[in-house]
Amino acid sequence: MMLVPATFLALIVFGALAFDLSRIWVTKRQLLDVAASAANDAAALAVSPDAYRSGAGPTLSDARATAIAAEVAQAAGVADGIDIEAHVIGGSTPRVEVVVRTEVHSLFARMAPGGWSSQPIEVRSVALLDTF
Predict the structure, then answer these.
(1) Cα dist. 77→6, 25, 49, 73, 82 in Å?
(2) What is the DSSP letter of 111?
(3) Of 30, 81, 92, 125, which is most buried with the most CB atoms under 10 A?
């Protein structure tokens, strides 16, 4: 009978830790979705129109890719509290890499021994500019 309160307390502690871990997992999945959408949109829309019209072929612009990635994050409703960067990687097939960083603050884990107060999250996504 004396183990019931201890078991109940352990159940509450494990439930609180599971809650914080699920917040980290959900945030990471959401940012992966935003990064993939931003990379796809940036690869499709960041083509420099002046370079393309001059006959140089499709070249991607870093500034346009970053602006498009920021617009995608704003449309997804996660622009506050994140750092989003878009980089154009040249070569025979140009591609756009989007990096999204944020930090998730724990609600319960900071109270546990060895717990954390915040967890940094960084996700990356790459999209190719596919031309034919």
Answers:
(1) 42, 18, 29, 6, 11
(2) G
(3) 125
State pLDDT tens for residues 11-36: 988 898 899 999 999 999 999 999 99
Report how far residue 117's alpha carbon sits from residue 112's, in angstroms, rounded to the nearest whole number: 10
Q: How much is the pTM? A: 0.81
DSSP 109: G
Q: In the chain, what are the domain boundaries?
A: 3-128
H helices within 46-121, ranges in order?
49-53, 62-76
* Position 52, amino acid: Y
- Sequence length of the chain is 132
